[in-house]
Amino acid sequence: MVIHERIGKRVLESFHAFLYGMGFFASVLKETVVYITRRQSRRVLTFQILFTGVEALPVIAVLSLGLGAVIIIQGVSLLPQFGQGQLIYTILITVITRELGPILTAFIIAARSGTAISTELGNMVVSHEIEAYIATGINPISYLAVPRVLGVTFSLVVLNLYFNIFGLLGSYFVTALIRPIGFQEYFGNLLNALTIVDVGSSILKSVVFGVIISSVATYYGFQVEQASTEVPVMAIRSVGRGFVLLIVADAILTLVYYL
Amino acid sequence: MKAELEHVYFSVHDTILLEDITVGIETGSAVMVMGPSGSGKSLLMKIMAGIIQPTSGRVRIDGQDLTRMNERALNIVRRDHGFLFQDSALWQNMTVLQNLSLPMQVHHPDWSPTRMREQIDRLCSYLRYEEDLSQRPATLSFGERKLVSLIRSLVLEPELIFFDEPRTGLDAKSHDRVLELLKDRKEQGKTQIISSHDSEIASMIADFLLVIDRGKLLAYDTVANLTRTDDPRIKEILSAVLDLSSSYDSDILEILGSSDIDPFG
Description:
The complex is a heterodimer.
Chain A: H1 3-37, H2 43-54, H3 57-78, H4 87-126, H5 129-135, H6 140-178, H7 183-193, H8 196-223, H9 230-258
Chain B: E1 3-12, E2 15-25, E3 30-34, H1 41-48, E4 56-61, E5 64-65, H2 71-79, E6 81-84, H3 96-107, H4 113-126, H5 142-154, E7 160-164, H6 172-187, E8 191-195, H7 199-204, E9 208-213, E10 216-222, H8 223-226, H9 232-242, H10 246-256
């Protein structure tokens, strides 16, 4: 095959894959509406929230406490040199609430739950469990993908709030060590720096990131065809593609915020 | 339920796995799908059941074209089928009871838990499955998993069932019980499509044999007619089953009405 044929074939394959991915995403959105409006078992959703949300709490707590502490140490040592000590609260809100909270939580969940979802669904394809759902007249997107998308998205929003609280708490503990400050004064200053747009932006990012992580993970899980050796390949692809899409979405949302 | 395939092709990338399959299966008949390993038997059954869409061609169940239906309509058609997978395909993250209940919970949300449990207990008793229903499929033997899968395919009381190797891996007792199930369904006039190399099923259950090889339909005819075929490849495939049991030969000859006839003349 000559080179231009190969390139053409590759372009066509990529285009088909893109259309398939969009079709899958549209199907997930459609079934999500049906899932929310229909009375049916919430077992898979409950398990997904338990796994993604509850079990990730310790790692999120440690990370956010540590990061909050690091930001305040850097801020306290640098900002007073420029006479901008009061900016530390704005910087904490901007960095933790608007940026690090949503994106770091998303990275942790993509690495943790994204791989788990891809691997689980991939193994279900190999063992014909997905075909068993189809054969029984149960739509795998409705029964398997939608609860995971909802569970991951809901968990990510809650974990982001949790990250913010622990991040700001961590920074308070460090500040209290360097320069004794009242809890009420510290959080009063933080609340003064916090706007409703900061909170809205943070929650919006979490929702978008949650949908991206779960949709990409379920998509790659269902992409496994026959062999168990495809499962780790798809799990890696799911994390890699998920990270790229998260960064792109974060850049777009941040840009929109400042426009 | 009547099942029809019309010029069905299935290919993956550039490899053709099923080629121009046209066949019509009448309501109430028992069809045994035969062919060497890798000939496309399971794939053909999955296409007939609407689990996999063909690359081209038409698949009709009771006149409804499965290739032109949306997912929601397809799920309603699939609900009325049963499908026994060769490797059981039980949902590993659920208990046996949850595996058996889920199809009813989804398709009959109005059924009470008691009614669902009664249905499960009735089928377990019918197939003499006596294990604890709170176990996970991973703790069961291959044969037990197969029985659970068989019960799952029956819980919605389907008119049409696809059995992929229904007796493979079962112990002698379950072997006989499954044969009784197939006989009972035949007597009830339910359509059965069975992929198997089992001589007893061929002789006692099958009305028609569907022979495929390398994705091509070699023959679809009554058992009696096919035993008289001159086609060497069909003879070869049939003899793989015939050689397995002497009773098969006598059953076939009985069907043909004379013990003097040599099926392959």
